[in-house]
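Complex record, two chains
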Amino acid sequence: MMDEPAKTKREVTFSRLLGFRELGIIIFIVLISVLIGIRNPRFLTWSNFHDILIDTAALSVLSVGMMLVLVTGGIDLSMESVLALTGMVAGMMVKQNPQLSPLFMLILGLLLGGLLGSITGLIVAKGRVVPIIATLSMMYIYRGITFIISGGKWINAYEMPDSFKGIATERFLGLSKLIYIVLVVYVVFYYFVNYTHTGRKIYAVGSNVEAARVIGINTEFITWLVYAISGALSGLAGVMWVARYASAQNDTASGFVMTIVAACVLGGVSITGGVGTVSGVLLGSITVGIINNALPMIRVSPFWKMALQGLIILVAAIVNIAIARNMEKSQLKRRTI
Amino acid sequence: MKKLITVLFLVASMVVFFSVSAFAEGYTVGMVVKNVGNPFMDAAGRGGEEACGELGNSFIFQGPATPTVEGQIEIIENLIAQKVDAICITANDFDALVPVLQKAKGNNIKVVSFDSAVAPGGRHVHVNQADAELIGKLQVQAIAEMIGYEGEIAILSAGATMTNQNTWIEYMKEELKDPKYEKIELVTIVYGDDLRDKSYNEAMGLFKSYPNLKGIISPTTVGLSATAKAITDAGLVGKVKLTGLGLPSEMAEWVHNGACEAFFLWNPIDLGYLASYVAGLLCDGTITGEVGEEFSAGRMGDYTIVEAEDGGTEVLLGPPFRFDASNIDEWKDIY
């Protein structure tokens, strides 16, 4: 009598585990960590783990923004330029006014990025320009404006106040402040995506625009909103980036957009829209962070590193897909029983 | 009547315009840099303007937004159309610019390459920053002094295919063969691709994979400052020494906090000055760009044209300048 419920409970936990979509990526993270740990034991230390989290901070913030856009079936290539432009503005501002508080700069980054993103959003939602073209154009425009406002000059470490650089270097309860920013972003967006009407509407628009319109969803507003959000998060990441590397360059994060897309796809976001989770994107970002952190630590020739990087991403994607398919199959089997 | 006045006005203004250009003093020198918005290139432009001012020439400063060959070709075509008298160029590719520069030479335009050379066929003379051997040597000597001639060192370079960096690294290895460095071991060369995040990660990776690392040489500006930041963040100031080639404005912070005691760079203002001075002298026929010609270049003093390794001719600017705590504050606002 006592055995029965226990068994059922175990079965439920097991099937829940199987139903967990991010299982594939977690298995991959564990696998790669063990392999690299064998090669260089320092990889598996707490301080290195903390380094990975700091390295991943900007990327994971950006990935959430990109995920929302991808879920609607779009793509936002302008994120890297919004990041650079906001970072440059922030750098120039703290250079002129060193007394500005770091918190104010972070909020300013969000607002300025949000403004830039909503312009892109208007072009896509109201102007009906294909997202890849609209955001590609804005990518060049915002990059150009970065050059124009800076006059081509960089903001260097000595021109930034310590309080600003402290965003990345100061710690609270043993963790870098950057990690807390990421935590806040993820909690907010986990709630937004899963528990608010607007959040759910994003998925509806991504799955089937026509159906979403028929049931009365303002699809234009939702489309505009996701670009505004991705802009805001790019702006926030811009301030984090400039504080972290203590340098605002005109070519900051040039080409970084591919890394953001890679993190999203590894985290299970579908390029064709409708599919993607906040927790998956976090794991995807951490995977990319681990790859970037691990490659310099394994003492192989730089040319092998390049090839390895591609190989690891490919293996991660395959493991992810294989496990997701197996899961679907086993779920279907259970249904027929 | 109104029409007549307009026509007369137009004719008058054209006459004024043409007579002004006909009687304008001096030559026009166009400087084409790798890309605009790069502080190093801007500083070279300031030097170029200064030299042109002294010689009574006029100066045009141009460059593509990103360091591409295509952008430079377009700009050179434009300068040919504008009938400039000389072009000073720091090339984005050794060979690809030769055809368009030959076209320029065919239009009686003098071509001076500086910083990064074009093949001899595309230029009259090259102005070299300093010889590669000296650049390699000085960095090895500096790091050896900092670590007390003993321990592991690593090199953090730009891209694996960069000609400049690879040549310097070859000379570094050459210098390290000297018996006085026998206790120094070069453990690895890594590449940060001149990207700030990647260079930073590579530096962090070095500390973790070589726990006994004593010093790093980074012969590239982004690599040097990203490594300095990584040393600072990892709490290794004083434990891992750093030298290389960098910009004073970028490095000021890290010289002050001790992450980088000293680094080198030729002075881009002087380099631009010399290049556009040489261009001026080519235009008025003082020199032709042949080996053995001697000339005086304003505030820079006397120079001799020598044979370059690539078969062409060149002028050597002089040894790279050493920046450390004693002089960084004078330079950090300049470039």
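Note: The interface with chain B takes residues 40, 42-43, 48, 51, 55, 144, 147, 150-154, 156-158, 169, 245-247, 249-250, 252-253, 256, 292-293, 295-299, 302-303 of chain A (CB under 8 Å).
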